[in-house]
């Protein structure tokens, strides 16, 4: 199966300190890590690992971070002809955290927010297109590419963490919407349900991930709420909550692509998520095809 990704592409730098200093204090750096990352990039790399024919659209700077991002994509066997080199800096996310749960996140998406349609090379037909919504010029380009994908007959899957006015057009083109929901979301769950019924008439599946999927999800099919799943993860010491959303999406998309039921696809999503959040490196927990059968024998959630 051919899959195309278009979304965030960043170098993620994780700095672990002994404690967050008060004014005038200096914290001790205990360790630091660096990964080629980004929610969309991680999903496409995971699908490539699961033997999908994968390609990616994005933009990086002509800098060390850009080279790392492209080389990492090539390592996973992904077609990079539409990862464009620009004059801006590449996207960077810095996560500073202590031994406790406290953390600070700094990010600049850089060149990847300024990708114009005319910069992109010819795009071949694919079976599935996965978008993580960007901002600025790149969001306009994503809308154009989504329309092209629909004309090609591809299934369009969109991940977002907001339902703002600028996103409405591309969300209405989607076959599947995966919404990341947290206590910081601008919309209540009731408002989201109303939004689905009013504006997303053609969306077949709308899935709300609670806390990036760690605390379960709510599934709507053809505008009707059909199920709520509460996950029994009980994972001690979550190391990488950022990877939860991309791990969930990878498993869910894999399930849909294999014609699994919604319930089976959600179960796959939770299996992937559970394996990934226990590790700092975003993709280290993605199972191989051979590992899936064993993992799926475990009961991962209950319906409520």
Write the layout of secondary structure elements.
Layout (H helix, E strand, L loop, with lengths): L1 E5 L3 E8 L11 E9 L1 H11 L3 E9 L2 H12 L3 E8 L4 E7 L5 E6 L19 E5 L3 H17 L2 E6 L7 H6 L2 E6 L7 H11 L5 E6 L6 E5 L2 E8 L10 H16 L4 H15 L12 H7 L5 E3 L1
Parallel strand pairs: 1-4, 1-8, 2-6, 4-5, 8-9, 9-10, 10-11
Antiparallel strand pairs: 2-3, 6-7, 11-12, 12-13, 13-14
Descriptive overview:
- By secondary structure, the chain is α/β, with parallel strands linked by helices.
- The protein has one domain: UDP-N-acetylmuramoyl-L-alanine:D-glutamate ligase.
- The protein contains 8 helices and 14 strands.
- It has helices at 39-49, 64-75, 136-152, 168-173, 189-199, 242-257, 262-276, 289-295, and strands at 2-6, 10-17, 29-37, 53-61, 79-86, 91-97, 103-108, 128-132, 155-160, 176-181, 205-210, 217-221, 224-231, 301-303.
- The strands form 2 sheets. The protein has a 10-stranded mixed β-sheet. It has a 4-stranded mixed β-sheet with strand order 3-2-6-7.
- Helix 6 packs antiparallel against helix 7 (262-276).
- The longest helix has 17 residues, at 136-152.
Summarize the structure.
The protein has 304 residues and is α/β, with parallel strands linked by helices.
């Amino acid at each position: 199966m051919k899959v195309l990704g278009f979304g965030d592409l960043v170098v993620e730098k994780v700095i672990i300190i002994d404690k967050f200093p008060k004014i005038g204090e200096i914290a001790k750096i205990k360790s630091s890590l660096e990964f080629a990352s980004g929610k969309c990039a991680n999903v496409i790399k995971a699908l490539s690992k699961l033997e999908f024919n994968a390609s990616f659209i994005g933009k990086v700077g002509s800098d060390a971070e850009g080279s790392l991002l492209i080389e990492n994509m090539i390592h996973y066997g992904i077609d990079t002809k539409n990862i464009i080199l620009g004059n801006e800096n590449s996207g960077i996310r810095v996560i500073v955290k202590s031994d406790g749960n406290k953390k600070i996140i700094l990010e600049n998406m850089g060149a990847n927010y300024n990708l114009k349609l005319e910069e992109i090379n010819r795009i071949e037909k694919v079976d599935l297109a996965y978008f993580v919504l960007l901002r600025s010029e790149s969001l306009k380009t994503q809308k154009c590419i989504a329309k092209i994908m629909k004309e090609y007959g591809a299934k369009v899957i969109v991940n977002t963490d907001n339902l703002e006015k600028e996103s409405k057009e591309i969300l209405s083109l989607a076959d599947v919407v995966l919404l990341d929901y947290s206590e910081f979301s601008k919309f209540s769950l009731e408002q989201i349900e109303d939004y689905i019924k009013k504006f997303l008439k053609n969306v077949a599946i709308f899935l709300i991930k609670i806390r990036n999927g760690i605390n379960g999800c709510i599934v709507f099919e053809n505008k009707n709420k059909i199920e709520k799943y509460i996950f029994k993860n009980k994972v001690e010491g979550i190391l990488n909550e950022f990877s939860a959303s991309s791990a969930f999406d990878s498993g869910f998309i894999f399930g849909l692509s294999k014609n699994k039921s919604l319930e089976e696809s959600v179960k796959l999503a939770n299996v992937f998520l559970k394996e990934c959040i226990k590790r700092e490196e975003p993709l280290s927990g993605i199972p191989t095809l051979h590992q899936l059968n064993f993992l799926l024998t475990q009961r991962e959630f209950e319906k409520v």
